[in-house]
Structures are given as structure tokens and as C-alpha cells.
Amino acid sequence: MSIAEREVRAKRFVSSGRSGNLTARRIWNGLEALSAIPYYLLMCPLTQPRRMTRFLETLFDYQRNEKVVSGNQRLIPTVQPEQLFSNLFQNSVSLLDLGLRPSGTTFVETYIMVCLIKYLRPKTIFEFGTFEGRTALQFCLNASEDSTIFTLDLPAGDSSVPSDCSCPEELSSRQLPIGGFLAHHRQSGRVTQLLQDSANMNFEPFRGTIDFIFVDGDHGMKYVKSDTENAFSMLSPQGVILWHDYGGRWPDVGRYLRETSTRKKLYHFSRTSLVFYGAAMQGVWKATHGM
Known about the structure:
Blueprint: H1 3-15, H2 22-35, H3 37-42, H4 44-47, H5 49-71, E1 78-79, H6 81-84, H7 107-120, E2 124-128, H8 134-142, E3 148-153, H9 168-172, E4 191-195, E5 210-215, H10 221-234, E6 235-243, H11 251-260, E7 267-269, E8 275-278, H12 282-288
Parallel strand pairs: 1-7, 2-3, 2-5, 3-4, 5-6
Antiparallel strand pairs: 6-8, 7-8
Helix pairs in contact: 7-8
């Protein structure tokens, strides 16, 4: 499938959730998932047992996600991205087919984020959690030429992994060096890789200067809290923050964002695990909530 075809597919996927109420969409999504069960339960055990196991894990994750998202609707409402940004998907974007990893962003999540970058034209971008550099490279391809991109991850080596890391085995699943996708791409010169523990890093030089922040580092409570607090401290007056893995297999992400939503207005993007915050949108929300 070509990049253009995948972009059109992503547009259709995002657009398909705009009509109808949230309950109807959830019922439809559930029916789609249930329709695949006979194949995975009857055929896969004989032909592809690993795929069946992964399907059952995905089904469990989906049910857990729906429970979290439904329970948090009052505090973190689910919206279509275009409800916040009209004509968001009108700009042409550049996307590379870099493959996916089980815990990485989906193609649709990446598409929404690069559309936001095209729409908002941030001058500075900061990513918590480089891993192999897929997302950072997609950001780079869609950011303006005068923008600067920072991406942060732990340095390589077992000795650098903190004892309270929520999923140290995920680090060992990396098939490329940290930021490996950035190494040989001609446009990646605008990306600065930072190799430090985000819990101990000095973020003071970035205070109030970052226009677009993506939080996708360690998913334990310590790091979700620390990375979120540092993200808010770095945010520019017109900046935005996106968190990944809301409602999924990392419950601490949902717990801390729910707590944060009592002080900041957050939105969950429909059919994704992305949560969004916009600094410029907070004034109206605070006024209506008496804050």
C-alpha cells in the first residue's frame, strides 16, 4: 500500500467516527471485534497460535480501554480532532511506512499528530520516549523547516535502566539503536537526541519554550507524573501536549491523567489512545468552572 493510499485510509478511518453518538460508535466497534472471534478461536489455534494469543490480548486491552474511557467521560470527554481544530485534515502530510510495533503509535494516531503539526506549525517539538525514532522522524518530515525537534530517551545499556522502570523488557525488544530510524535520513539533522533519565533531567533550559510535546516515555506512575509535570513547565503559551496509551495496558497513564483533568481541561481523541491538552484553550474552561 502506497503512502498516499494509507493517508486516504487514515482520513476515512478518522472521518467514519464523526457521525452518530459515542455509544453507537462503541457498539459498532464492539461488533466489529466480535465478528473476528470465530476465525481467531477456530482457525488460529491450528495455524497461527501466536496470532490467536495476540488477538485475545488485544480484545482484553480493548475492553479495558472502553471501561476506562467510558468511566472518565465527564472529566476527559472523547472528541473528534476536528471538533477542536476545524479543517485539520485538509493539509497534505508526509508519512513513511516504517512498520509498527505492538506498543507503538498506530498509523491513525501518527496521522492525527502530524496533521496537528502541519496545522499548528510549532517551532519547537519535544518527545518523551524516542525508542527507535519512528515518531520523531514522522514529526520531522511534517514540521516547518525552521523548527527544532528534541527527543528524549534513556541511554543504551542495561546499567542505565532504572529499577522502577515499569516495563524494562520493552527496552530489550528494540531492534534498532535508540533513534535508529533517524540515523540515515537526510532531514533528521533538525532532530536533537537527548540520552538521559527524564526523572533526573534538568528541564529548566526548556521552560516555557516548547510548542508541541508528545509524552510516550515510561508508563509507570513515577514517570507519567514526572514527565507530565515537566511537560507543563516547558509548554509555551500557545503550546499543546499529547499523551499516548491512555486507557490501554498501562493503568497509571489513565489514573494520572484523570487526576490532572481536575485542574486542566483534557480531551481524548476518538478511536485512539491519545489525550490532548491545549494551553490556549484553558481560559474559557477555567472561567466556566469558576477557577
